[in-house]
Every structure is written in structure tokens, then in C-alpha cells.
Write a structure and sequence with these properties.
Strand order of the largest sheet: 3-2-1-9-10
CATH superfamily of the largest domain: ATPase, nucleotide binding domain
Number of strands: 18
Number of helices: 11
Order of helices and strands: EEEEEHEEEHEHEHEEEHEHEEHHEHEHH
Helix content: 25-40%
Structural class: alpha+beta
Number of domains: 3
CATH architecture of the largest domain: 2-Layer Sandwich
Length: about 325
Amino acid sequence: MKDIGIDLGTANILIYIKGQGIVLNEPSVVAIEKETKRPLAFGEDAHLMLGKTPGKYEAIKPMKDGVIADFDITLLMLNYFVNKVKGYGFRKPRIIICCPVDTTKVEKNALREAAERLGAKKVFIEEEPKVAAIGAGLDISKPIGNMIIDIGGGTTDIAVLSLGDIVISKSMKIAGNVFDNDIKDYIKDKYKLLIGERTAQSIKHEIGCVYKNKEKDKDNKEKKKSMKVKGRDLVNGLPKTITFNSDEVMEALKNDINKIIDATKNVLENTPPELSADLMENGIILTGGGSLISGMNKLFTEILEVPVKLANNPLTSVAEGCGVMLDNIRMLER
């Protein structure tokens, strides 16, 4: 029997097998036939179909805001990926599965049922920021304050931890998927150009920025990253290409990034004084795919006046945290 940890994210699913490490990392996307609900593709293959399927097919994300939005499709997806990694040898495993901090009892039960249907001997539901903190290398077992901001695909979880658990936390449904929509809406409003979800993701990954670059080029102009963006002109319906730059991405994301910063301030204001002193010394750790947008840690440090550092493994910290917990599973069973 090999125990497994599942980071069932809105954007990606990662599977960790004890003794093997992370054995799977694929987009949480399923392509189906609309009428019959018959699955056509999963993960990366399905992600390539986003926005490109004929009318009778659909590429969907069965996870929304970090929880199960479509139980049947999520179960199909989990079954597919678990069967894909069964070559690593496990039968009736104990499974750790992660969820946002404000997940309801009903939503947790849905996660538990999905894991049990995979043949789990025992299921542990753990809160994402706690697992991410462990995976980022923080020792949360001591009476010392640690803080993490986990910006995922569907949710941002902000938490202060001490003595092995969450002291104060906040979860919000502003994260990577919302950033994609911000970029789409900005381009639609400014350029009257309609772009798809995958194009918005590419812009975010390639030239995404939230902090003003003060470097200058040889002509003493501010350095900006830019890229060609293709879409459909909303005026005449024809294909059109524009040049989009990092300053425009910063403008598009500004309001929602500020909401995350305000929520972080709120958590800091309600943190016990002794733990606040620890945070000034230890700083705050940023993790999750959204934290990789250029300048995120600099912006948070400047506004919060607390050192904010990027985790060494922002994309895999939850899955790696599952691995640490699997090595100490007896503590969970108590």
C-alpha cells in the first residue's frame, strides 16, 4: 500500500505518491461530448481544446473556486489520473486531499466521497494554506508565527500559522482565473478585441506584471515587456493583432491585486501581537501559481511593510506538503 496526496486545484491537479514524489501534474480540464457526457480527453490534451471545440463537444473545468463544481466529471477526471499513475503500485491507499480554508462541510463531504470512490482506505481533508506552508519548508509546529499567501487558480488563501495549525485565515475567490478574466476584459474594453482564455493565460505568464519596472533601456526609456496578441475584432468581426505590454497587464490586474492586499492587511490587523512580532522577523511567504506574476513579492513588501518572499516551489508546495504529511501520517490518524 502506498499513500497518496492529491492537490485537486481549480487550474491543475497534482498527485504525490509516498516514496515516489510528484508523479502527475496536469491541467484540471476534461473534454466531453455534450449530449452523452462521454469524456474525450483529460488534462493537457483537454486543455489544448479550450475555446477550440466544435459545437457538440465541450472542454470544461469541473473544479471551481477550489471546490467540486461538477461531481460526476470530477470523479471521471480523478479516476483517469489515478489509473494513469497506478503503475507506481498502490491499492486501497490512504489519501490526503486539500481544500481552501472556507470550504463548507458539504463541499468537504463531496471531496471525501470522491476520494473514497477511488478506493481509499482512509481519507484526510486538509486545508491548503497549512499544507502549502509545510511544503514551502516552514516549520509550523513551533510556537512561532508564520504567514502564507497562497494564490492559486480559483482561490487565494491567506493564513497565519502557529503550533501546527491555522490561527487566523481568510479565503477569497480572487486568483489566477480572475486575473485571466481581468486581462480579457481590459483588452475587450480598450482595443475592442475578443480573446480566449488560453490567450489571456499566455499574456499573464509571459508579460504579467504587478510592480512598475524602474529599469531603463539604452534610450533612457522604461523597460516594458510586450507581445503580439491575436483575437477577433468586435467592430468588423475579422481577425486582428495588437501589441500588448506589461504596463497594461499591471493596469488590468490592479483592482483585484489590491483586494488581495487589503485582505492580507485585514488578517495582519487581527493577528495576535506576539505572532505579529514573529512575522516582522520571519516575513510572509508567497506561493501558488499566481505568485509567479512578476513583481508580486516587491509590491506586497512595499505596501505591507513586512518582508514578503516567494517560495522556492510555488507551483508544487501543496503537493510537496502532502508528501511531508504522508511521512507523518500517524499524527493525522490521531
